[in-house]
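Need the bound structure for glyceraldehyde-3-phosphate, inputs here:
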Amino acid sequence: MSLIEKIENVFPQASEIPVGLRQDIPFAQTGYLINGEIRKWDGPQQQVFSPVWASIDGLPKPFPIGAYPLLSEKEALQALDAAVSAYDHGRGLWPTLSVAERIHHMERFVFRMLEQKERIVQLLMWEIGKSLKDSNKEFDRTILYINDTMDALKDLDRISSRFVIEEGIIGQIRRAPMGVVLCMGPFNYPLNETLTTLIPALIMGNTVILKPPKHGALLYAPMLDVFCDVFPKGVVNIIYGEGRSIIPPLMMSGGIHVLALIGNSNTANVLKKLHPRPNRLRCVLGLEAKNPAIILEDADLDLAVQECLLGCLSFNGQRCTALKILFVASAIKDEFLSRFASAVNSAPFGMPWQEDVFITPVAEKGKTDYLRGLVADALAQGATVVNEAGGTVNGSFFFPAVLYPVSEGMRIYREEQFGPVIPVLQFNDIREPIDYMIHSVYGQQVSIFGKDPDQMAQLIDPLVNQVCRVNINSQCQRGPDIFPFTGRKDSAEGTLSVSDALRVFSIRTLIAAKQTNLNKEIITSIVKNHQSKFLATDFIL
Ligand code: G3H
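Answer from helper R.:
Posting the output first, comments after.
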């Protein structure tokens, strides 16, 4: 079969989909979680179609996989009321629980979530077309993240369980919650990146409203019972619907203390402005990026090609950390392009459940048209597609396109494609990619490929001031999750890592007392009799 024929036949017959993978499909979800109750919705529903199309009578069509509630402003505000009451100005059960008790709830959450792994992973695969292998990885990485978060909080609490005496003042400094947190994650990591804000927000004692992403909402259904059973009422509220209908009223109410959004900077800017008291709003944002790779003349080309392939095309390039533009030294440009195009065309493509599949259909409706538009614009301005069949579309499947030579003025030069289109430029002077980064509105990461320590060092110093992670001879990525994950300019606000996230969802607060006999007696008595959870020296083992 030719490559084009393979692309034309990429989708299975409905009957060819493995039975074990469609047990839960289609799945009509009606529940949502507010104030410790799973309420039943009988209003309008969002129909959900998988990016995996299926052939019916020889024609591939979007495959229906379920539906979820389209709640209204009324239910969103009920969720807010529940979260506000559970927080109760910091006097609620959850924000006043001891750290050890909150960790205990979280351990139960992990145990119950693990029981739901298979269903969550399958729904994840169906909803966003992520390979089954990577969907499993996303689940496992999330569990690891939660476990690491508990360990990091124990460490933090141990450090805080001591008194500091300075200038005659006794102090005990701890981190306290902020209030109500609104968590919204992205479709590309609907589980992981949502929970990497939700879990630290919760464990620090905040109450939470969670709105799952548009693609990646069904997978929360198996977790509704878990959240409901494990956490006190009102501590976690899960609402579904059109973001533009249910989120603005929450922001305008002034009741949100932290906006945790992994998504788009336009959305973030609009939402921030809706808050009536911006100084009371903390924002934790992970936004767009246009991470470049710079491939120097002496780079190990096998390594560079392999890492650029992973960087550009893991999950079809639908990662904020993906490599989104490649700058190649002119002396090796031809060799790189030929090897890279062949690596792209050798990458296995197909359906997410297929063994070792790498390229799968893209998740968003209309995305292939957008990508086609980017390619057409570049071609009209002098670029060519250098790999065979690059840019061929079949339904929701887009065969990766490597574009060369890309130049300023083409949309792909600046726009974040978030998909399998790879722009390549050659450079004669290293100042060219650096200038590109200086003038970019984004500033997340860069990858540099080369061997000469002197040249690498000369690049590292200017680049660390443009972005927040310089990757040497490897693709850009978020992990390991204990590393700080952030960006400059329009790429992020706040820093997320296991330990940084505990900080962004909390504020330092302290007990201070002059070192008088009376104060010493008061403090000693409170600590000895365990009368306070804050003013305490208990050490979590
Ligand atoms: O979409 C952005 C993600 O944070 C990327 O994470 O580098 O682990 O794929 P990753």
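Comments: The chain has a mean pLDDT of 97. The chain is about 40% helix and 20% strand.
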